[in-house]
Write a structure and sequence with these properties.
mainly beta, Immunoglobulin-like, eight-stranded antiparallel β-sheet, DUF4402, DUF4402 domain-containing protein
């Protein structure tokens, strides 16, 4: 017995509808509130370093370098403070330079600023990552180490340090 053969109709195409979506977030911004201040120091015959912790503002001095400011005065060391604003609840990161060169006002000398470190308000301890609060705000502090040679000229030294914030 033979079965009748009826060709089946085959589809050579299919179609479906899809969608596209995009989410636009508030731009992230950063603003310096207070500059990083290493304070006022005096150096002896070997020079030295002053390291400032961004988390708690504590300092560590090496060599013949010594702080000559009374505690609580305007010439004491203090971390830099920056405000970050953006989309509420978003994570962000701070990119800081590895080092900077501080130049004496009026010329005549430079100091190296190294080991630049960050501490965000939202994440305890040192680190470059933070999270914006429910209002889209956070803050971070900046510390580091300044190297002072024994023959450094007296004066005020200033370094420009670009802090970059970006969403994670």
């Amino acid at each position: 017995m033979t079965a009748p053969f009826t060709p089946a109709s085959a589809q050579d195409r299919a179609q479906a509808s899809g969608s596209a979506a995009a989410t636009v977030v508030s731009p992230i911004t950063v603003r310096e509130v207070e500059p990083l201040r290493f304070g006022t120091v005096a150096t002896g015959d070997t020079g030295g370093t002053l390291t400032l912790s961004p988390a708690d503002g504590s300092t560590n001095v090496t060599g013949s370098l010594r702080s000559i400011c009374p505690s609580g005065s305007s010439c004491t060391a203090s971390p830099g403070i920056f405000d970050v604003r953006g989309e509420a609840g978003r994570s962000y990161r701070v990119t800081a330079p590895a080092q900077a060169l501080a130049t004496r006002a009026g010329g005549g000398g430079t100091l190296n600023v190294t080991s630049i470190t960050i501490a965000t308000q939202s994440v305890p301890g040192p680190g470059t990552r933070g999270t914006l609060d429910d209002s889209g705000n956070d803050r971070f502090k900046v510390g580091g180490t300044v190297q002072v040679a024994p023959d450094s000229n007296a004066g005020t030294y200033v370094a420009e340090m670009d802090m970059v914030v970006s969403y994670d």
